[in-house]
Specification:
homodimer; alpha/beta; Aspartate Aminotransferase, domain 1; Aspartate Aminotransferase, domain 2; four-stranded antiparallel β-sheet; globular; PLP-dependent aminotransferase family protein (chains A, B); pyridoxal phosphate (chains A, B); WH-like_DNA-bd_sf (chains A, B); transcription (chains A, B)
Chain lengths: 481, 481
């Protein structure tokens, strides 16, 4: 539970009384149903900005009133006793609803990360997102200042999304060697929604999804929640991925292969052109469609990466996912899928059932940025900035992690896949780091048994934060090794 | 299939050759996989803006090339023969993927409606959306002109959505008598996404959903697609809805009750305060949570409607859904859910897995409109405009539908639930209307066996279109009766 209220220090009422009243209100309004677990005393004291003793007094009073109860060793809960039963006796058993919903919850670590990310004091060493300093905020404001809308565009969107935006994306994809007409493109609210739509729109329960491991797909659940299972293939193994695919597909037919072939998340590896051609030729033979998650490829530093799989695909084998989240702004929530028109129309129909289309404001802004050339200008600047951050971070790693870890030099994207010399990447390390105000993306969220890697990102934290954070992290690790 | 390409009339190449080349390209690129059904010759001719004979020549050539084939009585398809097999022999069987995906497709009629709505020549007599003329386009542009962003707000959103927006919604809900703290609120991309999240976040497969019939829920599939089944209760029946609920719930436990209690979609009925209190008391006793879909209640004409269910609920029984789509602009894709905090946190966690939050631009704009009072000023104007449209439409009905149909006088919202004197509301009527360029929302999409009702809307079509459309519709109906 995350609390966004605090007592009023200039009120005549005592702090503890304000807290008592507020908690009572949460319970009587039904916002905290019976069985709700309260945050720890320490965390309540932090949220409210009061001493722990004030919290203890307030909670004791509420226990005396019968509104709360403590269960030894497991914390304080909204109680189920008479007084409470009087106010909310017949409340539905929400706890049961929450527990039994179809969709899997996020991994606990991911939930924690999502929540800690809202804390501005924390240093985010793994965040896969551009730093606020790298977002073209002023230029976006400028575009909005000169925006004029056709009123029709503020209505419900057509199923595949705004036509002008799709035309702009089609032209943009041509620069990457991809021929996709506007009709074979659809707009989505970011790459994750693309995966969600593919999952419920094209696959059956029990489908087998192949993917490279470690994988972004282990940190999100679009396929798992719909009852599909994931089989990880290793690019580092003795066998090539096509060989592994062929062997597995011989036993049970795979429904698709998911890959981030350029500046991978989390490993930052990139498939060579030859590897891409081999993959396509094998997938064609085995009739395995490919999802190409291509959200980082605009972020190369010195040399353009090999062409996207989709540009090498003459067979309608590849569903290509792109996005503005990693390059322009995640807050826009704009991405796209290119693929065979029958597939796109099916996915667009489902999108109409999910959210009736993406934000017209966001679609309009992205179309403007693509059409005016502002997007490519922004990319030129962004690449240099990211490269500087990469270099700065590599210098820090050389200073503080020599002998402690190994890493590759990124040629683009956001990430350094840091391999520690000892398998100490576990929830304890995560917690130790949080204590020092450092938020990590540990390897085990991308590969369940991985206790050696950390996904570092040079895209988010400021230089100052990187300097302090990486040094502090090295100290924590030295302590644990 | 919906085609957005046309031949270039100033090209040296003949029209039919351009069409042949373009269709070839669609096939060889894999955009039209094997088995794809082509639109009819007439519709291709329309799309391309050429004579039907040009289409026939082009298709004949492609058939001769072996790329297309005709199946007697069912149309022209991308063929599966040798030449084609050479270019795309081992394409995945996309048709099979599309057919077997988990999520149900939209009803055919709804798909048609979604598609016809993109045709600007058509008169939309049933569209549940504000007319472009009623959207405050200029004022939205004005707000954007003075917008300045905190760069952080352009990053990924926190799970429940932008904090300032949630604070503004909390204050706005207070004016409706609803106490919901910002922590017990989450932002969604429109009301439909709220239903989607509730469906996969809180319910088990096989759950029973009670709802009023006819119902908006029959025209969208958030629950059906996740394997729940719907049981319709009738407000017009001899038994009251609470009595029906009690009886049904005695046999099998209902998971929730869905209602649009104010200016219902499609019937435009409104529950009285007494009916609301009775419903709450029964649902409390039977422990059935309520989803209150409250997206029309700001649109009253003369008298404010009874208070929302949520404002009368001291037990955390109600999940309250609101939205800006029906009042400010559907293109913003901004709505919200208010409910017990544990439920909201579960739903917010799932939203993070679906699309990582709603558009920052849209969230920012709505916060501005709520905070500045512009939203309520806009509502004052909008109510008068809608009332004028209602009156205009009622005059037309009196002119053209006396003796043909019955209707109620709407006190707010968008809809007139027109009851024809004969059960002729069927796919044929829909088709006859389309022939005259009129798009209808027939009763059977809200209630499968309903062949007497049409959902008319006075919110979308212009006065001119309403005048022509309603007169023409009456002629079509007279012809069929």
């Amino acid at each position: 539970m995350f609390i966004e209220w605090g007592p009023n220090r200039s009120s005549a009422q005592s702090l503890h009384q304000q807290i008592v009243d507020w908690i009572k209100q949460q319970i009587t309004r039904g916002e905290w149903p019976v069985g709700t677990k309260l945050p720890s005393q320490r965390s309540l004291a932090d949220s409210f900005g009061v001493n722990r003793s004030t919290i203890i007094t307030a909670i004791d009073e509420l226990i005396a009133d019968g509104l709360l109860e403590t269960k030894l060793g497991s914390g304080t809960f909204v109680s189920n006793n008479t007084w409470n039963v009087l106010v909310s006796s017949k409340q539905p058993d929400w706890k049961n609803y929450v527990r039994n919903g179809l969709h899997e919850p996020n991994l606990k670590t991911i939930q924690d990360i999502n929540q800690f990310e809202t804390d501005t004091a924390i240093i985010r060493l793994g965040t896969g997102e551009l730093s606020p300093a790298l977002l073209p905020t002023k230029q976006i404001e400028k575009t909005l200042r000169s925006t004029s809308f056709d009123a029709h565009s503020l209505g419900y969107s057509e199923p595949k999304g705004d036509k002008r935006l799709r035309q702009c994306i089609s032209v943009y994809l041509e620069t990457k060697g991809i021929n996709a007409s506007p009709s074979s493109l659809m707009v989505v609210s970011g790459g994750l929604q693309a995966l969600q739509l593919i999952s419920v729109g094209l696959l059956q329960k029990g489908s087998m999804i192949l993917h490279e491991s470690p994988s972004y797909l282990n940190s999100v659940h679009p396929f798992q929640s719909a009852g599909m299972h994931l089989v990880g293939l290793s690019k580092q193994g003795r066998e090539s991925i096509p060989t592994q695919m062929k062997r597995i597909n011989g036993r049970k037919k795979a429904s698709l292969f998911y890959t981030v072939p350029t500046f991978n998340n989390p490993t930052n590896t990139t498939w060579s052109k030859e590897e891409r051609l081999n993959l396509l030729s094998l997938c064609k033979k085995e009739q395995i469609p490919i999802i190409e998650d291509d959200v980082y490829s605009d972020l190369w530093f010195v040399k353009e990466p090999p062409p996207p799989l989709k540009s090498l695909d003459a067979d309608g084998l590849v569903l290509h996912i792109g996005s503005m989240s990693k390059t322009l702004s995640p807050g826009l929530r704009i991405g796209w899928i290119a693929g065979p028109i029958t597939v796109i129309e099916r996915l667009a129909d489902i999108k109409m059932q999910m959210d009736y289309g993406s934000s017209a404001l966001s679609q309009h802004l992205v179309a403007e940025w693509l059409a005016s050339g502002q997007y490519s200008k922004h990319l030129e600047w962004l690449r240099l900035e990211l490269m500087e951050r990469r270099d700065f971070t590599l210098t820090l790693l050389n200073q503080h992690f020599k002998g402690l870890a190994e890493w590759q030099i990124p040629q683009g994207g956001f990430y350094i896949w840091l391999k520690l010399c000892k398998p100490i990447v576990n929830p304890n390390l995560f917690k130790q780091a949080i204590k020092e105000n450092i938020l990590l993306n540990p390897g085990y969220i991308y590969e369940p048994n991985n206790h050696t890697h950390i996904r570092l990102s040079y895209s988010y934290a400021s230089e100052e934060q990187l300097a302090y954070g990486i040094q502090t992290l090295s100290k924590i690790i030295r302590r644990l090794v």
